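Record 1 of the preview.
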Amino acid sequence: MAKRHINKVFVPEKRKLYLWDMDYQKLLAHGNDYFLPNLSIDLVIIGYEEDDLKCLLLKFGDKWLVPGGYVKIEESVDESVKRILEERTSLEDPHLKFLSVFGNHDREFSEEFKAFFKKSGMTWNKDYWFNNRFVTLAYYSLVNIEHTHPQVDDFFSDYAWFSFDDLPDMWMDHKSIVLKARNRLKEDAKHEVVVHNLLSKAFTMPELHQLYQSILEKKLDRSRFQKKMLSLGVFERLPELKKESRGRNPYQYRQKMDGA
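->
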């Protein structure tokens, strides 16, 4: 399976996730005292590496899911999303875009949680607050993989970057969330510039061309693509050439600060 695997990184005490700052059993039994009931946040964190779009997943038992969390009672939703993304990636000024609401009438996963708890030798109670139906607000975030430092906690044994074309077995409806984000990014790329953090700050037109081909999942005429991108007026050509190989030294560009 095509994934960029990174061994588990335990969270240092000073960077401990909010969810685990409180007593473990208290959290399981009385989470509704700390978080808005029946509402969760899920994040599809997207990076680009070796001409391939990848998403960050966490391992929960023997399957994988997208990073997420809950909205603290004293938080706004926006504050919660930024906090969860920072806790999971260490990124303090992230790109974020709302994706969709997932809230089918039967969206509750008590049987999945029950199986995981029993397999892990953990105490199970059918009245735990997270056994109820949950509506989740899903977002996607474009990140630079090299600058992203994922964090796991006691529930998750590992994390990895998976190609969208080779996703692992996933819990609940999280594969649907990931594929929805993949399609939304494709649609967004047709109407706006989506460089953001996927490329380095300085990049060449061939690199941008390859990125868009990966996002759109189709071949693009290079000359037409470059003319279209430059006509947008959002890229600034840099004086330095990128030395790639003999006879091939393309100009580098960067996105203007006031660009789209």
